[in-house]
Specification:
The chain is an alpha/beta fold and 739 residues long. It folds into five domains: 5-109, PriA, 3(prime) DNA-binding domain (GIY-YIG endonuclease); 118-185, Orthogonal Bundle (Arc Repressor Mutant, subunit A); 205-381, P-loop containing nucleotide triphosphate hydrolases (Rossmann fold, 3-Layer(aba) Sandwich), CATH 3.40.50; 392-435 and 492-630, 3-Layer(aba) Sandwich (Rossmann fold), CATH 3.40.50.300; 639-733, Alpha-Beta Plaits, CATH 3.30.70.360. Bound molecules: adenosine-5'-diphosphate and zinc ion (ZN) (2 copies). Residues 215-381 form the Helicase ATP-binding domain.
C-alpha cells in the first residue's frame, strides 16, 4: 500500500502546493485538512496548512522530507473559511499558502496554539487557616491569605496589585501549600436579558420595505444593494436587521471602509444593543486580535465590526453580512493578495448561506450593474429620514474668474454669509500639502521627485518638499536649480494653503484642517470632531477623510474647490470617484433642520456628467456613466487583469512583459480562447516610482470565465520565465487602479 503524503500550502509566493511525508508515529488517517503543520523548507522551518492527503507525488520518494510537527488536532479555521481562502487564491491568482497567511491571525501563523488566553487565579487551599503557626512571624503573608480567603472564586493575577497583595507573599504561601493557582479560560459571559438597550425607531415605508426584503431571506444566500442617500436611515435598517439575527442566536459581520469610523459605529451599536461586540482594528495587539478571532469562532461574540480584513473572521453561527459604504475603494487590497472585500463578501455569504447587504449612498457602478441585471436585489431609500432635507447643488463656473489661493470671490462671499448666520462651513479639496508643486517663474522649472516621475508637493508647515508617492523629502531650494533666479512660487493649492488663506480671510473663526498630515496623531481627529459637534461657526477644510461617514449637523455650506480633476483624468474610474466624493461630502451637510448648499467650483460647468449629477442626482449619473462604460467596452461590461512589473534598470520590466505577452498569446492559442485582448506592454502612467521603472500589460475579456482560464496557467508559467528574476511582478485581477 502506498504511503499517505501530506499536501501542504506553505507561506511562499509560489503558486503551488508542497508534498511531505507524515511525521513518524502519526496515524495519517486521523488528520483533517486545515490543520497547521511545521515543516522544513529550504534552510528554514515554516508553518503550512494541510490541504489534502495524497498517495502520489511528482516528487521522487527519496526527495520527500518528513513534516516536523502537527500543530492542531482540529483545524483552526472553519471549513467555510478554508473554502473562502481557496476561492480567493484561485480567483486572485495568489499562492494559497500566502492566502491562508492573510486569513490567519499573526500568532497562529507563528505557531501558537489556537486557544483562548488563559488567566491565572489565586485561591486559598480549603484547609488553609490564617492562624497557621507558620504565619505567626509573617504578618504580610497572613494578611495576604486573609484577602485571598475573602474571594472564594479566586483573585485574578492581574488584580493582585489593586488588592494590596504582592507576588512574593503569594509565592511563599504557594510554597507552604496554603494557596494554589488555577488557570481558567476567559470567556465573555453569555448574553442575558433583553437584546435591546434602546428603543427602535419606527421605520418609514421605504426603510420597512428594505428591512422586510432582507429579513425574508435570513437563513438563505441572497445579495442586496441598499441605495439610500446619506442620512436616509440605512444604519437604522442595519440595526433592526441585526437585532433579528442576534435574537435568533446568530452572528453578524459588519465591514466598514475605514477604521476612523470604527468608534462611531461601535458606539451607535453599543447604545442600541446589549450584546457582545468586537471591533477589530489595527491597534489591537496580536494577542487581542487572536482572542477576538477565537471568540468569534466559538460564538462568544454577537457582532463583529472591522475593516476589509475582518472579512476573514471565523463565525460559528453567521446570520448576516453587511458591507457599509460598499463603493469605497479601501475595500480593495492593493498589495499581496489583491482581493476586494466586497466581492469576496459575496462569496463568503454564499458559502455561509446568509444574506449579504451592501449599503451606500453612492453605489459602485459594478454593484449598480449587478442590481440592474438582477444579480442583486435593489432596495432604495430616496428620502432623508426625519425632518432633514437634501442639500441643493450649484455649479460655480470659475472660467476667467481670478482664484485667490484656489478660492473664487463668490465662494468666499458664500462662506462669509454662512458664518454670519452662525453656521459651519466645510471646504473640500482632495489634495493635501500646501501646493502641488514649486515653479520657477522665470524659466518654468518645477520641483521633481528624483526617484519618481512625479512632482514634489510643498508642505509649508514642515518647510519641506515631499513626494506623495515615495515619501522622499527635501528642503525647498532658495534659488532655481536651473536658472539660479529667486522667483520660485508655489503652483496650485492644497489643503494647507487653503487653510492658510481662510485663516487670513476669516480671522474671527476657527479654521480646522482634516487630512492625513493633520490627523497623524491618534486623538487629533477625535478632538476636532468634538469641537465641531459643539456647533459654533467654524470652517472645516480637508481631504476625502472628511467625506466619510461623519455627521456635521451644523454644516450648511459645502464648498468643493476643484471638481475638474475627476472629469479629465486618464483613469476611466475618475469620474465615478469624483461623483461619489461630491455626493458623500455633500451628505455631511444639513443633517438636522438646516438645509444645505453645495457649491462646486469648476472650469467644466457644462460637462454632461457633472450636470447630470448636480441636477438629477447620483442615480441618474450612474445610468449615464454605465452607458458610457458599455459604449467604451470598460468594466463592468468587460473584465480586466493587470500584470504589473517593476525593475531597477530601464527596459527590464518591458522585457519581462514582452515574454509574458508571448506566453499569453501562446496559451490562448493552445486553449482555443480567442477572445482575450492583450494591451501593452506599456510604461506605467507613472513610469518611475521610488527609483524603479514600471510597466504594465493589461488583459481584457468580455467574459470572465475565459480570462480566468488563461490566468491560472499564465501566472504559473510566469514564475518560471528567466526574465522574472530581474523584476518584481504582480497580477491584479479586477484592478481598480490602473496606475
Ligand atoms: P444613513 O446610515 O443612511 O446615513 P442613519 O441611519 O444614520 O442614516 O440615519 C440618519 C439620521 O436619521 C439618524 O439620526 C437616525 O437616528 C435618523 N433616523 C433613521 N431612521 C429614522 C426613522 N425611521 N425615523 C426617524 N429618524 C430616523
Ligand atoms: Zn528657473
Ligand atoms: Zn517620489
Amino acid at each position: 500500500m502506498p504511503e499517505t503524503l501530506l499536501r501542504l500550502a506553505l507561506p511562499s509566493p509560489l503558486r503551488r502546493l508542497f508534498d511531505y511525508c507524515a511525521p513518524a508515529d502519526v496515524d495519517v488517517s486521523t488528520l483533517r485538512p486545515g490543520i497547521r503543520v511545521r515543516v522544513p523548507f529550504g534552510r528554514r522551518e515554516v508553518i503550512g496548512v494541510l490541504v489534502e492527503l495524497v498517495t502520489h507525488s511528482d516528487v521522487p520518494a527519496d526527495k520527500l522530507k518528513p513534516a516536523l510537527e502537527l500543530l492542531d488536532a482540529v483545524p483552526p479555521m472553519p471549513a467555510t473559511l478554508v473554502e473562502l481562502c481557496k476561492w480567493a487564491a484561485q480567483y486572485y491568482q495568489h499562492s494559497l499558502g500566502d492566502t491562508f497567511s492573510w486569513a490567519l491571525p499573526g500568532l497562529l501563523r507563528q505557531g501558537e496554539p489556537a486557544e483562548r488566553r488563559l488567566q491565572r487565579f489565586w485561591l486559598a487551599e480549603p484547609e488553609a487557616q490564617t492562624t497557621d503557626p507558620r504565619l505567626t512571624r509573617a504578618p504580610r503573608q497572613r494578611e495576604a491569605l486573609t484577602i485571598i480567603k475573602q474571594h472564594p472564586h479566586g483573585v485574578a493575577h492581574e488584580l493582585i496589585g489593586q488588592l494590596g497583595l504582592n507576588k512574593e507573599s503569594l509565592n511563599t504561601l504557594l510554597e507552604k501549600g496554603l494557596v494554589k493557582i488555577e488557570t481558567r479560560m476567559i470567556r465573555s459571559p453569555r448574553h442575558q436579558g433583553a437584546w435591546l438597550a434602546q428603543a427602535e425607531l419606527p421605520l418609514n415605508p421605504e426603510q420597512r420595505i428594505a428591512f422586510e426584503a432582507v429579513r425574508a431571506r435570513l437563513g438563505y444566500f441572497h445579495c442586496f444593494l441598499l441605495e439610500g442617500v446619506t442620512g436616509s436611515g440605512k444604519t437604522e435598517v442595519y440595526l433592526q436587521l441585526i437585532r433579528q439575527v442576534i435574537e435568533s442566536g446568530h452572528q453578524v459581520l459588519v465591514l466598514i471602509p475605514e477604521i476612523n469610523l470604527g468608534p462611531q459605529t461601535l458606539s451607535r451599536f453599543e447604545k442600541r444593543f446589549n450584546a457582545r461586540i468586537a471591533l477589530l482594528h489595527s491597534a489591537l495587539t496580536d494577542r487581542e486580535r487572536m482572542d477576538a478571532w477565537l471568540a468569534a469562532r466559538e460564538g462568544d461574540v454577537d457582532i463583529v465590526i472591522g475593516t476589509r480584513s475582518a472579512l476573514f473572521t471565523p463565525l460559528k453561527n453567521p446570520g448576516l453580512i453587511i458591507v457599509d459604504e460598499e463603493h469605497d475603494t479601501s475595500y480593495k487590497q492593493q498589495e499581496g493578495l489583491r482581493y476586494h472585500a466586497r466581492d469576496l463578501a459575496v462569496v463568503r455569504a454564499r458559502l455561509e448561506k446568509v444574506p449579504l447587504l451592501l449599503g451606500s449612498a453612492t453605489p459602485s457602478l459594478e454593484s449598480l450593474h449587478n442590481a440592474e441585471i438582477g444579480r442583486y436585489g435593489l432596495l432604495r431609500i430616496t428620502q432623508r429620514a426625519g425632518s432633514a432635507t437634501a442639500p441643493r447643488f450649484q455649479r460655480l463656473d470659475v472660467r476667467s474668474r481670478p482664484l485667490d489661493d484656489g478660492l473664487s470671490q463668490p465662494l468666499t462671499q458664500a462662506i462669509a454669509d454662512t458664518l454670519q448666520k452662525g453656521h459651519q462651513v466645510l471646504v473640500f479639496l482632495n489634495r493635501r500639502g500646501f501646493a502641488p508643486t514649486l515653479l520657477c517663474h522665470d524659466c518654468g522649472w518645477v520641483a521633481q521627485c528624483p526617484r519618481c516621475d512625479a512632482r514634489m508637493t510643498i508642505h509649508q508647515r514642515s518647510r519641506e518638499l515631499r513626494c506623495h508617492h515615495c515619501d522622499h523629502r527635501s528642503y525647498p531650494p532658495q534659488h532655481c536649480p536651473a536658472c539660479g533666479k529667486l522667483d520660485l512660487r508655489p503652483l496650485g493649492a492644497g489643503t494647507e494653503r487653503a487653510e492658510e488663506r481662510l485663516k487670513i480671510l476669516f480671522p474671527d473663526y476657527p479654521v480646522l484642517r482634516v487630512d492625513r498630515d493633520s490627523t497623524a496623531r491618534k486623538e487629533a481627529m477625535q478632538t476636532l470632531f468634538t469641537t465641531v459637534q459643539r456647533g459654533e461657526p467654524c470652517i472645516l477644510v480637508g481631504t476625502q477623510m472628511l467625506a466619510k461617514g461623519h455627521h456635521f449637523p451644523r454644516v450648511t455650506l459645502v464648498a468643493i474647490l476643484d471638481a475638474d480633476g475627476g472629469l479629465f483624468s486618464a483613469d476611466f474610474r475618475a469620474s465615478e470617484r469624483m461623483a461619489q466624493q461630491i455626493v458623500q461630502v455633500a451628505g455631511r451637510s444639513g443633517r438636522a433642520e438646516l438645509p444645505g448648499l453645495v457649491l462646486i467650483q469648476t472650469h467644466l460647468a457644462e460637462h454632461p456628467l457633472l450636470v447630470q449629477l448636480t441636477e438629477q442626482g447620483y442615480a441618474a449619473f450612474g445610468q449615464q456613466a454605465l452607458a458610457e462604460r458599455r459604449a467604451a467596452g470598460l468594466p463592468p461590461f468587460t473584465h480586466l487583469a493587470l500584470l504589473r512589473a517593476e525593475a531597477h534598470k530601464p527596459g527590464q520590466a518591458e522585457e519581462f512583459l514582452e515574454a509574458a505577452y508571448s506566453e499569453a498569446e501562446q496559451l490562448a492559442e493552445e486553449m482555443c480562447i480567442p477572445s482575450i485582448e492583450l494591451l501593452g506592454p506599456v510604461p506605467a502612467p507613472m513610469e518611475r516610482r521610488a527609483g524603479r521603472f514600471r510597466a504594465q500589460l493589461l488583459l481584457q475579456a468580455s467574459l470572465r470565465a475565459p480570462l480566468h482560464r488563461i490566468l491560472t496557467p499564465l501566472s504559473q508559467r510566469l514564475e518560471y520565465l528567466p526574465s522574472s528574476r530581474q523584476v518584481r511582478w504582480s497580477l491584479d485581477v479586477d484592478p481598480i487602479d490602473l496606475y
